[in-house]
Amino acid sequence: MKIHDRSGFPNPARIRIVLAEKGLDPAIEFVPVDLIAAEHKQPLFLAKNPSGVVPILELDDGTFISESTAITEYLDNLDGNPVLTGRTPLEKATIHMMQRRAEAELLDPVGDYFHHATPGLGSALQAFKRPDWSGRGDWGRGQGERAQRGMAYFDGVLNNQAFVAGDAFSMADITVFAGLIFADAAGLAWPGKLGALEAWRDRVSERPTVKNRSGQAFLPEDARRLGF
Question: Model pTM?
Answer without folding.
Answer: 0.89
